[in-house]
Amino acid sequence: MPEQVDNSPVPGDERAWRIAQRVLSREGTALNAPEDATSAGDLDWDERTSLSRVAGLHHDATDISEVEYRQLRLERVFLVGLASTGSVEDAEISLRELAALAETAGSQVLGGVVQRRRTPDPATFIGSGKARELASLVADEGADTVIVDSELHPSQRRGLEDVVKVKVIDRTALILDIFAQHARSREGKAQVELAQLTYLLPRLRGWGESMSRQAGGRVAAGAGIGSRGPGETKIELDRRRINQRMAKLRREIAHMKRHRETSRATRRARAVPAVAIAGYTNAGKSSLLNRLTGDDVLVHNALFATLDPTVRHARTPDGRDYTLTDTVGFVSRLPHELVEAFRSTLEEIAEADVIVHVVDAAHPDPLAQIRAVTDVLATIPGASEITSIIALNKADLASPVQLASLRAHLGRHVVCSALTGQGIDELRALIAEALPRPHVPIDALIPFSHLDLVSRLHTEGEIDTEDYTEQGVHIVGRARPDLADALREARRTP
Ligand SMILES: Nc1nc2c(ncn2[C@@H]2O[C@H](COP(=O)(O)OP(=O)(O)OP(=O)(O)O)[C@@H](O)[C@H]2O)c(=O)[nH]1
Ligand SMILES: [Mg+2]
Questions:
Q1: Nearest to 121 by CA among 174, 65, 79, 82
Q2: Which residues hold GTP (predicted)?
């Protein structure tokens, strides 16, 4: 159920109030979403984009902050990047990615500029002269939004906005928006909303000071919301309500995480090894999953097509079962709010026995993408120790020279294409080889009343010899400890 919200308008800080209200009471958030765990694969892309393209309210420039953390109704955008530490080429690659992100969010990219500057300008990010140049570019192109390829301080955003006269948003807000548009499961929605509120909170503070004076006194007396007595200001109340909401979301997420751990534990108990497919967004993770399992998970040439982990069953060429999990894609400078929010999803990767790290070999800078992924993986306890296989995907698009120079930098890898099927058998074989092997020796006569154990031995264990006798099936081979225990138990209770 959505929380009960006090809607009384308060003079002076009406805007702040209204924005907070809408975040807290908006539709389709985790807490009032239907109780299902729809996987991304079950949803058609068109349906999703049509959801995100519902005709929006027309935002005027005064409502920018709201636009930031609600769905951005971007139409015609202009991009700005800064080449400070890296090269101009790097900044350009990053800006092209920003363009793809903006398109994924549903906007039309009119153009973009990269500015070389050692450090960002504290007032306008790009410096006042450049900001004026940008203003005329924006006016010429008829853009209504500027997206900056960095995380902006709230005052920089306001400063730049004052000069360019259209709304300005940053890369973080854009990524958060895409996640908000794409999240389907309850857990995904809760995680994104938590990330958005985390992003919003310090930005609310910016305009809190002056407004609290205007609102003054008891004006905020939000009866029923843990009334804190006189002197409380509206903005503090909003902040408290947001904090309450965040606490509630955290509890929900913890609860759903326990649920997921239970199903994970069930898989573990059945000793089915797990393989996680990880990698940069748009690398072809879902396509590879489909190739490996003959499934039909959503594939789309867009960033972050997959947000919810999808688990599928697969089998090695020699008949052993394992699970394959498709995971959310990574992106350079993933907002830390999101890394935090998606930690439980990322932990799914840490639980895997093998990680298949999918790389778009045809990308202009695949090594940077690999680094972005391994950097995030390094923050998940246990993840860096897991056997990982690099799948250099989209080999059909990459030139032989490109592939050769990339391969020189990599450890265990396979060159493949989810599109043509090239290298898929090799990938299957590498996965099979990397999966943990059953190691408890078995030499058992299994009574016919326990044929289920015979079939488990076929899919989970390794069989050297199998003889059907009058008393049952005599099997020699190896199994995992839990199956070995079950076999012992079965012999005791024929
Ligand atoms: N040419 C070519 N295109 C591919 C290949 N693999 C995937 N693609 C395309 O790349 C795009 C992204 O593929 P997805 O499988 O959705 O990628 P993903 O890694 O799951 O992406 P997200 O879920 O958005 O992070 C789609 O347009 C695919 O058709 C490949 O081997 N060759
Ligand atoms: Mg995907």
A1: 82
A2: 279-286, 304-308, 326-329, 393-396, 417-419
37 touches 187 (CB < 8 A): yes
> How far apart, in whole angstroms, are the C-alpha atoms of residue 188 and residue 206?
28
Residues 139-182 pLDDT 10s: 998 998 999 998 898 889 889 999 999 989 899 888 888 878 77
182 lines ligand 1 (CB under 6 A): no
Ligand 1 center–CA 272 separation, angstroms: 27
Same domain, 426 and 287: yes
The secondary element (H helix, E strand) that includes residue 363 is none
Q: For residue 430, what are its two tokens?
A: 């590498």
Distance in angstroms (rounded) separating the CA atoms of residues 10 and 29: 26
Domain that holds residue 481: 440-492
Which residue from 175, 282, 358, 394 has its CB within 8 A of the most atoms of ligand 1, so it is best to mutate? 282
Give strand ranges (E) for 70-190: 76-83, 108-116, 145-148, 167-170
Give me the interface pTM, i.e. the ipTM: 0.98
Torsion over CA of 345, 350, 356 and 360, rounded to 10 degrees? 50
Same domain, 389 and 462: no
DSSP string, 165-213: -SEEEEHHHHHHHHHHHH--SHHHHHHHHHHHHHHHHHHHHHTHHHHHH
